[in-house]
Write a structure and sequence with these properties.
The complex is a heterodimer. Chain A is of the alpha/beta class. Chain A folds into two domains: 2-148 and 285-363, 3-Layer(aba) Sandwich (Rossmann fold); 151-276 and 364-389, Rossmann fold (3-Layer(aba) Sandwich), CATH 3.40.50.2300. Chain A has 16 helices and 15 strands. In chain A, the strands form four sheets. In chain A, strands 2-1-3-4-5 form a five-stranded parallel β-sheet, with helices on both faces. Chain A is globular and about 60 Å long. By secondary structure, chain B is mainly alpha-helical. Chain B has one domain (18-285): Orthogonal Bundle (ABC transporter involved in vitamin B12 uptake, BtuC), CATH 1.10.3470. Chain B is built from eleven helices and four strands. In chain B, strand 3 (138-140) and strand 4 form a beta hairpin. The longest helix of chain B is centred in the N-terminal third of the chain and has 32 residues, at 9-40. The radius of gyration of chain B is 19 Å and the shape is globular. The chains are: A alpha/beta, B mainly alpha. Chains A and B meet through helix 1, strand 7, helix 7, helix 8 and helix 9 of A and helix 1, helix 4, helix 9 and helix 10 of B.
Chain lengths: 408, 296
C-alpha cells in the first residue's frame, strides 16, 4: 500500500516538476543563481529538514541581498527514496539550470544524489544526511558536507558515554545506510575506549513503529548502554517506549535533533545526552539568528540542519559573488566548491569555520544534556551544554577518510 | 531459567505478550474494516487516517480543553464517528452501485487528503501525549516488566472486540444488520431504513478506528503518519482472516501480532514482511481467508 501511495505521489511530483521546468527553462537568465532544496517534505524527516530548511535557505538569500545577480530557490520532496531523489537532481541540474542542491537528508538518498552531482560535476552541499561516507569513500570534488556526520556524533556522544562509565553497549539500529554507518562509527569509539558491544538488532526501515521487542532484547543482553542508531520519529518512538517499559539502561541517542526533543516532551526526554553543532541558545549570535529565523518558521525552531542550510547557502552566495556571476555560471561545480573551500566561513549560526579539502565542513560540536522540566525556563529551552569539541578535534582526520581525489 | 531455541524463555514470553499487545491494535482496526466491508462492500482505505484523527482529537481535547484521556476514549470516537457520517453522506454513498475499485480509490484519496492536511497543520515529528496518571508505572511479571498501560490496552481492546461481536451476533440489531448485508431490498421492505443503517455502520466502524487511535496515542508518537504504517498490516490481517468476517478479524489480529512479535526475536529484519508471507500462504491454500465463507 505505501508503495502505491508513494508512487502515486511520485508521479504527481514528477509531473509538477516537469511542468515547472518547462516554464522556468524559458525564463532562466544568465545572471540568475538557482538553488534547489531537496529533502523530505512529507515523511518522518519533515520537521528535521523539510519546509523549515527551505525557509532558512530563503532567509540566507534574503539576508545576503545579492548585488548584480538574482537568486531563485526551488524545493522538492524526495520521499526518502534514492531513485526519486536522483531523478529530481538530474532534472534540476540538466534541464532546470539549478546551480546548487542543498540539504538532502536520508543517507541512502544523499549517496544517490552525491553520485549525480559527481557525474555532472555540479555543486551539492549536503546538510541533512549523516553518513560520513560523503567525505570518505563516496566523496566528490563538487560535494561539500556541512555541519554533522556519523563520525562526529559517534566521537562526541559515544566517547563521552564510555568515559562516564557506560562501557558495554547494545545497539538498536535502523537497517539502512545511515543506521549501519552510525553503528559502525560508534562501535569503533566504544571499543577504542575499552568498552565492548554486547549485541545489536537491525530493524526494518521505514515502517517500524513498535520498538518494545527490540528494547526487551537490549535489556536481556545485560549491557549498560542502549545505543539508538536511528533518527526522527523512530528515535522518538524508541525513547518513549523505553521510558514506558522502564528500561534501566543509559540511553544514548546517537542522532537526535532539538525538534525530536520537542516532540518527546521534557518529561520523557530529560537527562538524554546528544550532540549537535548548533543550538539556538549558545551565544548572542545564535540567538540573533534564531530571532530572525523564528519570523519565517515560528512553530519549528531551527535545529543544526536548518541552521546548516542557512549557513551553507550564505557561504555559497559569498563564493559566487567572489568569483563573479559569469565565472560561477560558466564554471563547474568543482570550481565553485574550490572557491568555497578557499574562503573561511563566518555566520551567526556557526560562527567562524572552514571547509576542508575533502569537502568536510569544520565547525565546533557540542555535547548537550536535555534539561529537566524544572530547569527549562520556557519554550524550546531544552539543552544544557556539557562539553564542546573544537573544529579540529571533532571530525575524522583527513587521512582516515579515504577520499579518492586527495590521494593523487 | 530454561532456554527455547537458544533464547531465554523469559525473553520469548515477553515477546509473546508484546505480540498480543500489537495484535490488540490489529484486531480493533481490522474489526472496523471488516464491519464496513461486510455492510457497505467498501474497502475503507481511509481507516488509517481516521485512526490518526482519533489520536489527534484526543491530543487536541487534552491540549486545548484540558479534557482527560478517559473522556477522550468516549469523545474522540464520537467526534470521528460524526466525521464518518459526513464522509459517508457526501462521498461514499455515491459509490455503492459501482465496482469495489471506485470505493478503494475514493477512500485512498480521502486518506491522502486528511493526512496531508494534518501534516501541513502539525508537522511530522508528532505531539507529546503522556500516559494517564492512573496507568503509569509497571508491574514485574517475573519474566518481564509489563507497563500497566499496555495491560490496559489489551484489556480494553479485547473487551471492545467482545462487545462488538456480541452486538452483531447476539442482538436483534445485529440480526437486522446481518440481514441487511445479505439482502438489503427485503430488509427495507420490512420498513427498516437501510441507508441510515449503512451510514451508522460506517460511523461505527470509523469510531472503532478512533478508539484504537486514542489507545495508541500514549504509546506511539501522535503524528500524521501513524495510521499509514499500520493500515497495510491491518489490510493483510483482514485478508488473512477472511474479508468481512468479524470473528476472523479479531482472532487473526491477535494471532498475527504474536507471529510478528516472535519474528522480531528470531529475524528482526524480516518483521515487517512476515505478515505478508503468511498472507501469501493463506491465499494460496484458502483463497477466502481463514474464516471466510466460500471462495470468490
Amino acid at each position: 500500500m505505501s508503495l502505491s501511495r508513494r508512487s502515486l505521489l511520485g508521479t504527481t511530483a514528477a509531473a509538477a516538476t516537469a511542468f515547472g521546468a518547462a516554464r522556468s527553462g524559458r525564463a532562466q537568465a544568465a545572471n540568475t543563481i538557482k538553488i534547489g532544496v531537496l529533502n523530505d517534505q512529507s515523511g518522518p524527516y519533515r520537521d528535521t529538514g523539510g519546509v523549515t530548511s527551505v525557509a532558512c535557505t530563503k532567509l540566507a538569500v534574503a539576508e545576503f541581498a545579492a548585488k548584480g545577480f538574482n537568486v531563485e530557490v526551488v524545493a522538492a520532496d524526495h520521499q526518502n527514496k534514492p531513485d526519486v531523489g536522483a531523478e529530481i537532481a538530474r532534472q534540476w541540474y540538466d534541464r532546470d539550470g539549478v546551480d546548487m542542491i542543498i540539504d538532502v537528508p536520508t543517507s541512502s538518498v544523499a549517496l544517490a544524489v552525491a553520485g549525480v552531482a559527481k557525474e555532472k560535476n555540479k555543486l551539492h552541499i549536503n546538510v541533512g544526511a549523516a553518513t560520513s561516507d560523503l567525505t570518505g569513500k563516496s566523496c566528490a570534488p563538487s560535494l561539500i558536507h556541512w555541519c554533522y556526520d556519523t563520525y562526529m556524533l559517534a566521537k562526541s556522544t559515544g566517547g563521552a558515554t564510555v568515559k562516564a562509565g557506560g562501557d558495554s553497549w547494545f545497539f538498536v539500529t535502523a537497517d539502512y545506510a545511515f543506521g549501519q554507518q552510525l553503528q559502525k562509527d560508534t562501535t569503533a569509539f566504544v571499543t577504542a575506549a575499552g568498552g565492548k558491544v554486547m549485541g545489536s538488532v537491525a530493524y526494518p526501515f521505514p515502517g517500524t513503529t513498535d520498538f518494545s521487542s527490540f528494547l526487551l532484547q537490549a535489556q536481556a543482553s545485560g549491557a549498560k548502554v542502549l545505543g539508538l542508531c536511528n533518527a526522527g520519529g523512530d528515535t522518538v518512538n524508541s525513547i518513549k517506549q523505553a521510558h514506558e517499559f522502564g528500561v534501566k539502561m543509559k540511553l544514548a541517542a546517537m542522532l537526535m535533533f532539538i525538534t525530536d526533543v520537542n516532540a518527546l516532551g521534557l518529561d520523557v526526554a530529560q537527562g538524554l545526552t546528544l550532540t549537535e553543532s548548533f543550538y539556538w541558545d549558545l551565544n548572542d549570535r545564535t540567538r540573533a539568528f534564531t530571532e530572525r529565523a523564528k519570523k519565517v518558521t515560528p512553530n519549528n525552531w531551527p535545529n543544526m540542519v536548518h541552521a546548516g542550510c542557512y549557513s551553507g547557502t550564505l557561504h555559497f552566495l559569498k563564493a559566487v559573488a567572489d568569483m563573479g556571476i559569469e565565472a560561477a555560471k560558466k564554471g563547474t561545480g568543482t570550481a565553485i566548491a574550490e572557491r568555497m573551500k578557499a574562503m573561511p566561513t563566518d555566520d551567526d549560526a556557526f560562527g567562524k569555520g572552514s571547509i576542508r579539502a575533502d569537502g568536510r565542513g569544520l565547525f565546533k560540536s557540542y555535547l548537550f544534556q536535555v534539561k529537566t522540566p524544572a530547569e527549562s525556563k520556557g519554550k524550546w529551552d531544552y539543552y544544557k551544554v556539557m562539553g564542546e569539541t573544537s573544529a579540529t578535534e571533532a571530525w575524522r582526520p583527513l587521512a582516515d577518510g579515504g577520499c579518492y581525489y586527495l590521494k593523487s | 531459567m530454561f532456554m527455547i531455541f537458544g533464547y531465554p524463555s523469559a525473553l520469548l514470553f515477553g515477546q509473546l505478550l508484546l505480540g498480543l499487545i500489537n495484535g490488540a491494535f490489529y484486531a480493533l482496526l481490522s474489526l472496523g474494516l471488516a464491519i464496513i466491508f461486510g455492510m457497505l462492500n467498501i474497502v475503507n482505505f481511509s481507516h488509517g487516517a481516521l485512526f490518526m484523527l482519533g489520536a489527534f482529537v484526543a491530543w487536541g481535547l487534552l491540549e486545548f480543553l484540558g479534557i482527560s484521556y478517559w473522556w477522550s476514549l468516549l469523545l474522540a470516537p464520537i467526534v470521528v464517528g460524526a466525521f464518518g457520517v459526513l464522509l459517508e453522506k457526501v462521498f461514499i454513498a455515491r459509490l455503492y452501485k459501482l465496482d469495489h475499485l471506485y470505493g478503494l480509490l475514493l477512500t485512498f484519496g480521502l486518506a491522502l487528503v486528511i493526512e496531508g492536511l494534518a501534516r501541513n497543520q502539525f508537522g511530522s515529528s508528532g505531539m507529546p501525549f503522556a500516559i494517564p496518571r492512573q496507568l503509569q508505572g509497571a508491574t514485574d511479571l517475573g519474566f518481564m516488566f509489563m507497563p500497566n498501560y499496555r495491560g490496559w490496552v489489551v484489556a480494553a481492546s479485547a473487551g471492545m472486540c467482545l462487545l462488538v461481536w456480541l452486538v452483531i451476533e447476539k442482538t436483534s440489531l445485529g440480526a437486522t444488520l446481518r440481514a441487511a448485508t445479505e439482502n438489503p431490498a427485503i430488509v427495507q421492505s420490512f420498513g427498516i431504513n437501510v441507508p441510515r443503517m449503512i451510514t451508522l455502520t460506517y460511523a461505527a466502524g470509523v469510531a472503532l478506528a478512533a478508539f484504537a487511535g486514542v489507545l495508541a496515542a500514549p504509546i506511539y508518537s501522535v503524528n500524521p503518519n501513524m495510521g499509514a504504517s499500520f493500515i497495510i498490516t491491518v489490510f493483510a490481517v483482514v485478508v488473512i482472516g477472511g474479508m468481512g468476517s468479524i470473528a476472523g478479524s479479531i482472532v487473526t489480529g491477535f494471532g498475527l501480532g504474536i507471529v510478528e512479535g516472535l519474528t522480531k526475536v528470531f529475524y528482526p529484519q524480516g518483521s515487517s514482511v512476515v505478515i505478508f508471507v503468511v498472507m501469501v500462504i493463506v491465499l494460496l491454500t484458502r483463497p477466502a481467508g481463514l474464516f471466510g465463507k466460500g471462495g470468490h
